[in-house]
Amino acid sequence: MSKRKIRVKIKGYSVKSTKIKVPRINRNSLPENFFDLIPQRAVEAVYFPEGIAHNSIWDMAMGPDRRIFVSLCGEGSQSVCAKLYEYLRPENRFRFCFDVRRECMVDERSTPPSKIHSSMCLMNDGRMIMATHTTARAPAHPFWLMDGFYSHQWEGYQGSNIIVFDPATGEARNWGVPVPRDSIYGGVYDPKHEAYYFGTWSRGHLHRLDIKTREVKDLGQSSELGSFRYILGPDGHIYNTTMTGRLYRVNVDTQRIEDLGVEFRGSPNKYSSMHRRLQHACVGPDERIYMSVFWMDGIYAYDCRSNKLECVGNYEPEPRIYNCQQAQNGIRGMQFDSRGCLWYGVSGGVESEVIWEHLVRWDILKDKSPVNIGLLGTKQRQVLVTTEMLIDENVLFLTDSNHLEDPPGVIAIDLNILMEDFDKPRKISQDPFSYYHLNDSARHCPGSAYSVKDIEAYRKFNENNSTFMAENPFTVQSEELDVVRLWQAVPVEESSIQQLFWKKNGDLYGLCGGHGKWQFLIRDGKLVSIEKTLRAKNRFKFPGIQDAGNVPAFAKSIKLPSHPGRQFLSEISAWCAWKDDEILVGTREAFLVRGAPSRKNAFSLGSVAPHGPIHQLASNSSRSMAYGVAGDSQDVGQLFSYDDEKGIRELGRMRFQAFKNPGIAGSCEPRCLAISPDEQTVAIGVADRLGCVYLYKGLKN
Predict the structure, then answer these.
(1) Is the separation of the CB atoms in 154 and 143 below 8 Å?
(2) How far apart are CA 256 and CA 246, in angstroms?
(3) Which of these, 239, 356, 359, lies nearest to 290 by C-alpha position?
(4) Measured between alpha carbons, how far is 497 from 483 in angstroms, rounded to an integer?
(5) Could you tell me if 269 and 296 are in contact, meaning their C-beta atoms sit under 8 angstroms apart?
(6) CA-based nearest residue to 226, from 380, 357, 60, 58
């Protein structure tokens, strides 16, 4: 194991100060052969050398002439930039290709591009295209704080770079940052039109890069936030899912996102209620797309011709070694071999922790049952996370990633030898991590020297990270939250919210779609009805929005604050009534001011968000508390509040994750809001392509 120490440079969050809470399991609750490794005669493994700061691999792809390339990445405690290596199969070693830090000229203070993540693709001309991503902290930060520092010019993430690498010459070319401040989470190449499609982490938007013209086109929000597994279907179109498990197609001919109206259903695993995004996918011999989904217990097959999604069965072999734990179980990697058998890793553990991974073979097209081949790894080190799998000439190549802070590696498994030795006696894992979560773990570990020092340092860092994030949230905090997903009730492109209004009885009415095409009613946090306004039997008459078009006459002549040199943008974008005879005014540059007929100059309260404009303001009945939403159309917009006691408070952005069904939502374009008659709930409508209404009860200012 690695000898590196994890240092957390922040007061109150040291390795020594954290008490470890370890979920435990009895050895006798696991099968007798649980720790039997896959046949070792079939295994050849190579790892990056000890002492490097990188701890993971998050992409592996086949280049020209069947050459294999892997991305060396950093995640968590290390502040590093990604590197690309070629895995030389005959020599079982890695050859350096390029360093992202050099090619992208990374600023020494910024959040580093620490990954090339699920985005490497071979283009028609033999070159490889890829994108950088980040999950590593800036040098001055204690943890990865991309969301908290997205607007920080120096310490934030500057944006992902598109890199084109030519394996023939070894030349890497940086094509620049197509989407500033956001991070590219995954990508796929369209060989028909020579285009590269990629999705972003923070905003969940899908973009298209034309390889010939370098034009970048934003296709809109395709997922609540980052969804990385883009798969090129047998029909030439691109497929993926939202975080909530709704399948969509990217039509490469029309360059549009098409909602397919099918989604993954519930699972006994409680974590599937948090999110159900696509995890791994591959095209089968029957030309269906086989898919695994985060935290769900089945493998799914999608037929592009019939638009039929079918669960083909539980991926776990009998006896089901993980299903009783309700942990974050799932599949790691998926590939078909030349015989039509599906290979994948099954990961699982205790409670929220993933601890083990077993290799599974399923002759799925012949309706046979999955077979557990054994614990993945070598005698000294079990595989913890497989991010990618490839099969070539009946050899399975997989990544061994995120094993504590150890350097990662690649394992090659000869499937012919593997099956020859399947019934022979097995070696047993001697990796201490395999046994760490067992009661009386030291007694069960067969190794001569049982050491948990590195394991506990890694766990302490993760627990410090969780504690810090809980105390430094970037999302709106409230006692209760309901999310109404209008995009699942109307055509997705018509779901963006335009207007909200509460009636005195607590009913919330709203308009969505272009020019308010749809009218909806929300009651007790649930969507009660939605219909086109032209056909609405009981059409609701919405009162006028308080915006620049109907601001009181005196406000048009008051002098508004501005950023130096941007005085021409000191214009009113929203307003609401305030106490006495005053009003609150919001500007295009996100300034909030108080104005009154008796004053010629507005009293500036300051900026309410990193970027403007302020889209809408609303005050309570006593005119003592006001809320507003602000943000550029390409921003991650946010909610703010104002009262005379606390002043301005930036409350955060719209993102939600909890054990609900489905338990995740994310939006970046808040456009309208309304305060309930009892003043307990603030409703926010968003203009994102995936239109939602957020109902925050008991806001924490």
Answers:
(1) no
(2) 16
(3) 239
(4) 13
(5) yes
(6) 58
Bridge partner list, 263: 246
Q: What is the DSSP letter of 49?
A: P
Q: What is the DSSP string of 279-290?
A: EEEEE-TTSPEE
How big is the CA angle at 656 (ends 654 and 662), to the nearest 5 degrees? 130
Phi-psi region of 29 (alpha: psi -120 to 50; beta: other; left: phi over 0): alpha
C-alpha span between 491 and 259 (Å, rounded): 8
- Write the Ramachandran bin of 76: left for phi over 0, alpha for psi from -120 to 50, otherwise beta: left
Structure tokens at 145: 């704080």
Length of the chain: 701
Amino acid in position 253: D
Query: What residues contact 163, with CB distance under 8 A and at least 6 apart?
Result: 98, 100, 103, 104, 116, 129, 130, 131, 132, 172, 173, 174, 175
Cα atoms in the 13 Å half-sphere on the side-chain side of 591: 22
CA 396/CA 335 separation, integer angstroms: 9
Classify residue 648 by its DSSP letter: E
Distance CA 610, CA 587 (A): 13
For residue 498, give the nearest of 293, 304, 670, 678 by alpha carbon. Answer: 670
- Residue 490: enclosing H or E segment and its boundaries? none
**Spatial contact of 242 and 228, defined as CB atoms under 8 Å apart:** no
Nearest residue to 700 (alpha-carbon basis) of 676, 685, 682, 684: 682
**Phi/psi at 381 (5° precision):** -150, 120
pTM: 0.95
Do the Cβ atoms of 296 and 272 come closer than 8 Å?
yes
Instruction: List all residues 6 or more positions away from 312 whose beta carbon is below 8 Å from its beta carbon.
Output: 290, 298, 299, 300, 301, 364
pLDDT tier at 3, thresholds 50, 70, 90: very low
Mean pLDDT, range 239-258, rounded to an integer: 97
Query: Residue 464, SS3?
Result: helix
Answer yes or no: are the C-beta atoms of 691 and 486 closer than 8 Å. yes
Range name among 14-23, 33-42, 138-147, 191-200 with the lowest pLDDT average? 14-23
Tell the burial category of 109 from Cβ atoms under 10 Å away from its Cβ (0-12, 13-18, 19+): middle
Helices and strands of the chain, counted as H and E runs: 5, 47
pLDDT tens digits for range 161-209: 999 999 999 999 999 999 999 999 999 999 999 999 999 999 999 999 9
Task: Burial-class residue 27 by CB neighbours within 10 Å (0-12, 13-18, 19+).
Answer: middle
Q: How far apart are CA 692 and CA 667, in angstroms?
A: 8
The gap from C-alpha 410 to its chain's centroid, in whole angstroms, comes to: 25
| Rounded Cα–Cα distance for residues 44 and 89 (Å) | 10
Amino acid, single-letter form, for residue 187: G
Asked whether the CA dihedral 184, 189, 190, 194 is positive or negative, the reply is positive
Mean pLDDT of 477-497: 96
Q: CA 252 to CA 344: how far, in whole Å?
A: 29
- CA torsion 155→157→158→162, rounded to 10°? 150
Q: How many whole angstroms separate alpha carbon 77 and alpha carbon 627?
A: 37
Q: How far apart are CA 587 and CA 489, in angstroms?
A: 34
Calculate ∠ Cα 425-89-47, nearest 5°.
70
